[in-house]
Structure formats: structure tokens, C-alpha cells
Amino acid sequence: MKQPTSGHVWQFFRAGDFDQVALTSGADLLALDELDQKLWAALACPVLGLHFDARTLELIDSDGDGRVRARELIEAIKWAVARLKNPDDLLKPQEALSLDAIDDSSEEGAAVLSAARHVLALLGKPEADSISVADTDDARARFAQMPFNGDGIVTAASAQDDEAVVALIADVIACVGGEPEASGNVGVSAAKLDEFMAEVRAQLAVRARAEDPEIRVLGDATGAAAEALAAVADKISDYFARCRLAEFDPRAAEAMNGTVTLYESLASMPFVHHAAETAELPLAHVEPGRPLDLTAGINPAWEERIVRFRDEVVVPLGGDGETLTQEEFRAIQAKLAPYIQWSAELAASKCAALSTERLEEIARGEAEQRLRALIERDTAEAGTAALIESIDRFVRYCRYLKDLCENFVNFKQFYTSGEKAIFQAGTLYIDQRSCELTLYVDDAAKAAPMVSMAGTYLLYCDITRRATGEKKQIVAAVTNGDSDNLMVGRNGIFYDREGRDWDATITKIVDNPISIRQAFWSPYKKLVRLIEEQVAKRAAAADAAASQKLEAVAETVATVDKTKPEQAKKIDVGTVAALGVAFGALATATAAIAGYASGLMRLPFWQLCIAVAVLVLIISGPSVLIAWLKLRKRNLGPILDANGWAVNARARLNVPFGESLTGVAKLPRGARFVTRDRFGQRPAVWPRLVALLIALGFIYSLLNDLGLIHRLTGGRIGDEAGEGPGIEVLLTPQAPEEVEQQN
Asked: Global pTM?
């Protein structure tokens, strides 16, 4: 979409390493439709899952799709500004809006002011000069509980003095369903009443055909005959189909009657003639062109039903009761088809449960007319409902639009105000730290591809409140401290924005660098873990080997008299040669390392310290560099996008800002220890002593190398400047033979 050319002069501020528009006046808000949307912090946000007034978001979401977009926010701002005397009031929200702030010189403003006074009068405060969100909430709740509240839906409570209408409302709801009224109770609208009355008249028309001779072919016995036919119709059709197939090919007759193997399996079980296996067999013996014998040879599982069919259907409809051909069976079906179809229509009606007398009473329309009058009376109050709706919308916009803009057009509340943004769900306390950047998650699996691009260390946690049984899922960003003690299964406590506490358990971790300090020590921690793992493996292997040797010794002792002397093993010349080569390579490598070590030891102490520091940087440098690059790219956008937002900027979480989002435990200022830990380990003195000695040695060596100590002591202590070896000894290490000579 091409943005309109703007004559408005904008101001910007920089936060999160991106430029954000400053909203300082009502004119800025009015000109938002002229601001290039590429400069907005976000272009859409979800209606649910935010710490924000849900009713306001629903009102702004004009298309009801569960998302607020830039266009809808602009329309909401323009709607509110058109009813205010001073647009700047939108940026100065108050708990109660002064009525004097409403611009009654315009038609829109006058309507809102009239609605405000009407609501205040409804609340018993006609003289009040301000109105709040609490007032409009109260008015909406009170009006919803009134018998007639403008939604066009009438409940039984609204017609409690008219028993006939109350009964009609109950029948409508039972047959075609009701609709929720503003109060939450279920009632009847004009559309539902129309649907019900159409069903009533259709059902009466169906029941009026009950005496039709084509339907009641057997009089009162027609219903029983239809039931008897339905019980055997499919089985009889199956029998005639088998006979036709046997007539087509006589070879099929044997298979149509059931295989010998099937009968043998039946013979091995206790015989029950109603068993399912028996019922699956043909109705009677299948032969080409053979009619169905109704008196003999019937499958035992179907015998009772066939007898009933013969007595209640075949004989009453003129059959001989002895045999039944396929043509006669089709004729019987045709005679009973009108009744079967009529019965289906009767049962399909939504009013089938009502008696004919009740249907006729309803169809007379007396209660229907009175109910329609009540619906019309309720609908007439739609004007009052619209007034309450309009002032509720206006008061909420004036109170909350500023907060939404500072979490949508820019991210001022998140980056600069010291307040929590509307997308922050609460605070997670775990592993002696507090994580402030937490969001609710609807579908972690769906969000996974997006959050992996955030470059942030993330904890997915299941949170529960056992008292209420509530369960949710959150994601928390860890931006300070280290990850040594964070693992799946660890527990913590989550406090939501209302202050309620939840049990939290880590279920998934997205691993990324947390800080430069963590990256610096990471290689050494990995080395320590690797050594520990190798030591544990070696110890386990040694233990297993020792156990095997003990078992072997025990077995040898037990069978010493039966064991033949073991023959001496021959020496493998190839193995000896390989071992010689290996030992030679090892000796050469050891000598080379010793040469470099000897070169290091010949350096002055201060240069040796620098060389060690350089070595440490070489080891930690790559890890630190990678962490630095990732921390520079750490981005809030993918985390929000994974939760339904459309973030339009690279909202970075740099190191200083990230540290503010995760608090690490530390004692408060002025805290004192009142007791001494009797069993605590005393702090070791030697690390500090060693560090002090190294520092003193570094300083002495440096001053000595510069000749300062020699000059200050008159030549009694120290060397003259430039006498010691330089850093070049590292580049010319001693040869192995020189090292051996020195040794």
C-alpha cells in the first residue's frame, strides 16, 4: 500500500537499536495514517493473551477476526478524536473522563455527551461531571439485567407473568435452541420464533396425513408391520441376491451357503443359535431361483424375526404364509413404503417430541403474538443499548489508546518507560534469577521455527495452579547470568500480572549465548565436563575389567585341575615395529612441547604473564566472538511473531538492556549476617594470595626489565635495562637436543 505524502513534522527517538516515532501530541495521533507504516514498531497484535483491557481490543477489532491491525487502530483514534475538544487528551489518560472534554459542538460529540448523561442518570449520578470505565461497566451490567435491554432476545424472566408465553419460550429453546441474551441467560429471538413456528406447522401437516389409506395400509397394525419388515428386510434381500448369483453360476452356490471350514469352526464352539457367527450365515439354503420358505429351513438366529414378519406382514397383506418370492417381497416393500417415508418425516421434525394437542395449541398463535410483542418491545430499547455502547467505547478509547499506541506504533513502554509492555505476561523466578520478558504461548510446536531465529536463550515452561486446575504455557527469555543449572525438569514460580502465583516447570530450552562472560568461560567448562566424563568412563571401564578378572581368577581356581597349561604367546614383529614408531612420534612431540615450554620459562615474568593471557584469549576468543555476534542479533521480533504479533522492526535486546530484563540474586545494600554458618566451607585464602603474588611478580619483573629497580637501588638489586631475553624466544624455541643438554 502506497503511503500518502505527509506534511506533518515527526519526532523520533532511538531505543532497541531502531528508530521509533515519538507520539507527543494529538496531532501526531491524527497524522498516523500519513506515517509510513514501515516506521511502525508493529502492524498487528492478537486480541487475547495481552495484559490489556480485553473489551477495548474487541471494540477496536472491527472485523472480529481476533487481531488488531494498523488500519483498525487508526480508525479508533480518529473516532475518539472526532468527539474530543482537545486531541491531546488522548495522551493524558485519566481514570475518569471529564464531561467538559467532550466536544458537544459536533453531532458526534453531542451524541456521546447525551449518552454519558443518560448513563450517569441510570447509575443514580445525574449531577456527576465525569465518567469512568467503571461507570460504563456498571451501566452495561445493569442494563443487561433489565427485562428489556435492546438485544431483541426475550427470556422467561421477561415474561414471568404470562405462563403461556413462558411455556412457549421453553418449547422453542427445547426444539430449535435459544440464543444468549446480554445478561447471559438463554432466550428467544424473532428468527428463532419464526423457525419454531415453521417446524410446528410442518409437523401438524405431517400428522394430518396419518389417516391416509395409502399410508395406513393395515390400519392400526401398519406400524408394527413396518417394524417387522425393517427387522428382516436387509437379510431377505441378501438371501435373494445369493440365489440370483447361484442362478447365474451354479458353482457359486456352495460358496454362497458357507464353507465347510466355517461350519467346522462353529462346531468347535458351544452352539448358541443367536450367536453373531450364526447370524452371519445365509437366511436359508441358497439354490438357484429358490423362493424363501417361511416355515422351514430358516437360519436359527433369524427364525423368530421371520415368524413375526410372516404373521404381521406377509399374511395380512395377502400372502399365503408358506413361501415368499423376490417379486412378492418387492411388492410388500412398495405397499409399506409410504408409511415408512411418513414415519421418517415425523421423526425428523424438531418438534417431534411435542404432542399433537400442544402443537395445535401453539399453532393457534395466541402465545406467539404475545411473545412477538415482547420481542418488539425489547428491540425498541436498542437505542438505549447503542447509547451505552457508544459512551463505553469512547471512555475506553480515552483511557487506553495511549497505552496501546506505545506498545504498537512504538515500543516505548517496553524500552524506555520502566513499565512492563502489554505482551509481558509476568515474572518467572528460577535458579536465583527473575525473568521479566515472559509471554504466554498457544502452540509451542508452531512457534518453534520462528523463535529459533531470535538468538535468545529461551525457557518454555508449563505453568499450573493446583488450587484451580488452570494450565498454561509460557516462554521466558534468560538474558543475564549463566545456563549451568538450567535444564529440562527444573521447577520455579511464575507470578502473572495480577500477582497470582503458578508452579512452573521447564519443558524445553532454546540454547543461545546469554552473556560475554558466559562465552569466555564456556571452553574451560566444556573441558572440565569432558575430563569428568572421560574419568567416569575410564573408572567404569576399569571397574568392569577388574570384575571380569576376578571372575576369571575364580573360575581358574575352581577348575585348576582340569585346565591345560597355556602355551607361551609368540612375539609379533609387526606389533613391535608399530609400537616403536608410536613411541618415537610421542618422544618427538614431547621434546617439541618441552622446547616451547623452555622458551616460555626463559621470558621475564611480566612477558610470561602476557603470553599466558594471550593463550587464554586464543582459547576463549572464538567462543566470545560468536557470542558477541549472536548477542548483537538478539531480537524481540521473532518471539512476538511466534505469539501472534506482526512486528515490523528489528527490536533488538542488546547486552545492557538484556541485563535489565533478567535480575540476578544479590544481597540488598546494608545487609548483615547475624549468624555464622557452622558447617559452611571457609573461603580459601590461597587463590587471593596466588593472585597477589602473580601481580607483584608481574610488576617487579616489568620494572626490572626496564632497569628501574637497578637504578633505584644503585645497582644493588636488579638488572640493567635490556639484559634479559625478549619475546622473540617464543619464535625460536630450543631444539630437543639443547633441552636434553640443559637437563
From this structure: 0.66
